[in-house]
Records
---
Amino acid sequence: MRAASDAAFPGRVTVFRDRRLPAPATPAGYAALIEAYRLNVPLPRRLFAIGIRHRIVEDDAWRLLTPRHAPAGDLTGHLVFALRYEGLDLAILKRLFLCIGPEPVEALVRAAPTGAHARRIWFLYEWLTGRLLDLPDASAGAYVAVLDPRIQFPGETRSIRRQRVRDNLPGTPDFCPLVFRTEALERLAAGDLASRARAVAAQVPRDLLARTAAFLLLKDSRSSYAIEGEHPPQDRIQRWGRAIGEAGRHPLDLDDLLRLQRLVIGDARFVRLGIRREGGFVGEHDRETRLPLPGHVSARPEDLASLLGGLLAFANGPAAALDPVIAAAVLAFGFVYVHPFEDGNGRLHRYLIHHVLAARGFNPPGVVFPVSAAILRHIEAYRRALESYSERLLPAVEWLPTARHNIQVLNDTADFYRFFDATPHAEFLQACVIQTIEVDLPDEAAFLRRYDSFRDGVTAIVDMPDRMIDLLFRFILQGNGQLSGRARRREFQALTDAEAAAVEALYADIFGERS
């Protein structure tokens, strides 16, 4: 524990922890607190500092405010600055509170017992650490929101008499990632994607919608395996598709996650099912030394019980207060960062997206959006979303290689998985959901309409069972509109030249260049 009076706040710099500033400036808010108290935490995506000019300068990594925004150069000044301009970073705040102990926070509150920021800091200290400060309950001051809803998306609100605050955090102390308001996500909140999805589905006849839904479900299951580089037998793809189709029908629990892992793995001879008992990472090994080269470090095995408890509590409670797409992103990406299993994490991570959307009634009845197919089409953007936090997490994790070419994490990292900035993940998932609504669903329905026209047209040309019509269609599709000589000599040798030409002309008329 470090005394607040011992902190040495940084002066003007051009580089902060290997991150170059757009101009010379003095770190403020979280950046100043991190430096002054030597906090080993993932850096926020954007840090703040006070520039020397009277205009705001910003890039992807920094926002430089003007000298008139400069905080007092002490703990209180930088804490208030962070809450006012940067929103909440719960991982930094918890590490700070554990570093300085209760006395500086008690002194801060006693100096301004009715101050809005002081009462917010007081509440956050007790909420994050689980320790009560030696302070009497607040007796004055208007109730103030703990999380500024103008900066970050809030959860449901409940009044806390002790500090006279409104607790609107969208999670619990065991799991509470936050999402910043951005232009893209504001459009999500205003656009009502669920209504747009129902409107698109309403334009499709009911019998055709049922067939469309079945195709999309199979497509999503196949894509989820393909993302992992796997191509399992059709029966496994269908079983996983059925599991996805049942997502959201009942609350999640650990037994359900374990059941889904068994289902998705299939052959478990070389995989230990259940919760990990060792460290874990996502990455490669050095070819010569076999040393781990992690791109992401998973949560420590000793932290998995509390982290999974927090994830499940979020899924069955606080998630309901957030927009469904944002809640799905928070839960699913939180799960994949924790990586609680040896294998199957990626597919379960994408299942959780379906779970939240279905549980919240976001999907049209009977329709599962092929989110995995959209992810597969935008796999590089998906990786960038995953790396948006993993790259900032890695420097804060201390680890050693083990004799089994795994890693052992040496420091306490649990809070880095409880509290992270899920904004890039929500923006990515939003783009995927929009694509499923505006492209995949109508395109699949349109394809089935054209296919039905093709099937009826073929039947008018030659009497043929549906399975043969389907095979005929696939051969013509593979031949870019023509039936190959091989198919004419073998499967469809009974077709006359005139019938084959008529079928090809029918295909061209219905599908044309759209195939």
---
Amino acid sequence: MTKDEFINRLKSIDKAPFLFLGSGFSRHYTDAPTWEGILEKFSKKPLNQYRSILNTNSLPLIATELSKDLTHDFWELPSDDEFFIRHKNDIKDQSSVLKIRIADYLRELSLKQFGSSFEEELKLLAGLNIDGIITTNWDDTIERIFPKYTTYIGQKELLFSTTFSIGEIYKIHGSFRDPSSMILTNEDYEGFKDKYPYLAAKLITIFVEHPIVFIGYSLSDPNIQELLKSIVKCLDETHISKLQNNLIFVEWKPNDNDVHIEKYDISMKDGILLPVTRIQTGNFKLVYECLSYYERKIPTEVLREYKKQFYDIVVSEKPERKILALSDTKVDMDSKIQVVYGFGAIDKYMTANGYIGLTAIDIMRDVIKEEDSYEASKILTKSIPMITKQRRIIFIPIYKYLSLVGIHSDEDYKNSQFNFGYKLKKGTDFKSYQSFTDNDKKKSLIEAIQTYKDKDKWKAVALIPYLEISNDDLPLLASFIENNISEFLVNKNSKSTSMRKLICFYDWKKYGWSS
């Protein structure tokens, strides 16, 4: 298959590609060690010693045994050892020490700049119009290349969050930023495999509708084969045909500065042959050039926000208040009139009455966004006074709007035209649930989110105002709130008050003051 034939086939698919990235991708740009190399880095014994004792070449099984040895060594450290002091409360199971060691190493690696020889190649990659990235890598190479994409860490975060399949990164094997999420040991892989059907169900639409470009994997990679097998099981013959036309595997071929494209059959377990397109090259830039065929006038991250805004309208408590119909438009009488969606433009057209119609949830959603959707002075004089008066709401975020009109202290607020008698909340005002332990209150933000999930998620919501939250934590906190606001407020969760307090806590930490 020629390069032009390949590009024309891609053009016949009306969706932008997804990238599926493996360890070879990160090694290419950061010179990171292989998985075996990482294990060797933290092992006091040769890995062959583990192989001979365990009678296996399985790296997950070796990682399990290595984890046990490192955990034993950790608890033998002196009580004044810096690593021991820093992590003694973080060791939850026998794999924690190894995962933390690896995470610290990858964190250091992430601080290094990409080599200058990759500048042109990375610029081309970063400029591609792709809809998203799926990766089994723990490092943050891809987040550094696509910093505006929204990242979901681990299977649980992906499976239980509302995703929009555009402008997103799915780290299905976890991330060094949350060591407990990393799929590393044999037990981790067994748990991951148990959830393959759920992951396949989440990804199946992406695989059928988009070109999927695998980079940094071997065609025989058992993890990829297992995932593809789970997806194939869910499809009928028609969809399998669509799937096989979408799968593109890029194989690294050292010292080959050309690109070779051919049809290829992957031999899977159970005798299944899956036809794919194989690209062999020693120059990823040539692959990115092929993928640059897809153009769009609106940036991917903006399109994701459009899609999310439409979703918010659908699940909104009162969706009609999020839709603005401009006057003097006789829609019913003119069949040529099309729907126009004005992203972030509603404040330019809203009257004072429109601001009176905003709900508490509208205000709370707006506060966790970076952009300014509304005119702050009208929120302070029209919306918030009406909301607090009508529903006697005690907790409503206000600091964002006060900061936008130049109010940065209690004295400023007291003497301003925007003082309508609302008592500003601070510090302990956001704490409610009294049963948290001292250890709970010492957790980091990511630890709180990871510790209390699913049915106990409300505990994370209630716990966070007790934690030491830095400015660096605020983007993660905003993402956590954004992913769960509908569950707690729109769906009338019994713990809605805790979420209201958390949003007000975020508003105070980001825009407010202490005294």
